[in-house]
Amino acid sequence: MTRAFGNRPPLRPSELLIPTPAGLYCPPADVYIDPVRPVARALITHGHSDHARAGHGAVLATRETLAIMALRYGEAFAGSRQVAAPGGTTRIGEVDFRFVPAGHVLGSAQIVVEHKGLRIVVSGDYKRERDPTCAPFEPVVCDVFITEATFGLPVFRHPPASAETAKLLDSVRLFPERTHIVGAYSLGKAQRLMALIREAGYERPLFIHGAVEKITELYQAEGIPLGDVRKIEPGERKAEGRKALAGEIVICPPSAIQDLWSRRFPDPVTAFASGWMRVRARARQKGVELPLIISDHADWDDLQETIREVQAGEIWITHGEAEALAHWCGTAGLKGMPLHLVGYGDEGEAEPEGKPAEVAP
Ligand SMILES: [Zn+2]
Ligand SMILES: [Zn+2]
């Protein structure tokens, strides 16, 4: 006997969203959220490459996320695309999907999945700290909250980003002959750092590595003021041209701080903006002289605060320190469940290997 979905009793959470090797699958809508393999229909939370992949049939995402995907993968990144209006609801099958800001990077959204009164929130990656480059996280009360746990250990408590930015600017004042080379993920962190530097009153030009250029232009085109940002010209790769960058701030992808590219600058100070810089051994291992603890992920306190705020009885954990966060959920009287999803880890920020053996004060 076949019946229309409309006559079926309400689904259980585990029937509305199912972890599969391709990602979270929603059977009554036949869509995947942040699939890690090519699928017919994908809903995408944000533009980081572990969540937003090329090759899907159809993609539903915020306008900014679609623009980021087109920039990175080319206009043909998917068979078709559809803009998720902020706060608006898109019905697919019997399921309502709503995109709500996640505060992670430009265009990042949580996806609220609702079916006959059952509400699951897929938060994607998120943070609670203020970020001048994207809309703030909005908590949505729900039955099941699906969270990341990148920094889901008590050692991870992020200091205010403004204080970390002040450390960078103090060092620039202290060493006016040295070039400060700051590693920052090219989507989100680099632009947030630039905005923080501007908020701190620094008005000199900021120099960027070519890999950061296109995304930075997109942020500026979206109306985010980053001041005078200049790409490092090929001539400045030569010793003579680089002398001109003594005393300046250069922002580059994290991989560039360790390679030859950075060593050609005059007496460089290497810095790295990441939540992982809380771990001293990590900074040392990467040859980072000036660690800046600036993260686009919720820290231990903010994970807990968010879980309390959304009032969900069940917490499903996608990636990161899933077991530790699930254990905390148990102590708080909540059901915490690691999903063991494979394929997530933010362009370097969520590094699966290495445990925080040694933590900075
Ligand atoms: Zn991300
Ligand atoms: Zn991620």
Automatic annotation (TrEMBL):
EC top class, as a word: hydrolase
EC number: 3.1.-.-
Signal peptide (UniProt feature, chain positions): none
Record-annotated Metallo-beta-lactamase domain positions: 37-171
Source species, domain of life: Bacteria
Keywords carried by this UniProt record: Exonuclease, Hydrolase, Ligase, Nuclease
Keyword field contains Hydrolase: yes
InterPro entries: MBL (IPR050698), Metallo-B-lactamas (IPR001279), RibonucZ/Hydroxyglut_hydro (IPR036866), Xnuc_lig_assoc (IPR026360)
A Pfam family this chain is assigned to: Lactamase_B
Gene3D superfamilies (alphabetical): 3.40.50.10890, Ribonuclease Z/Hydroxyacylglutathione hydrolase-like
GO molecular function: exonuclease activity; ligase activity
Protein name (record): Ligase-associated DNA damage response exonuclease
Organism (species): Bosea rubneri
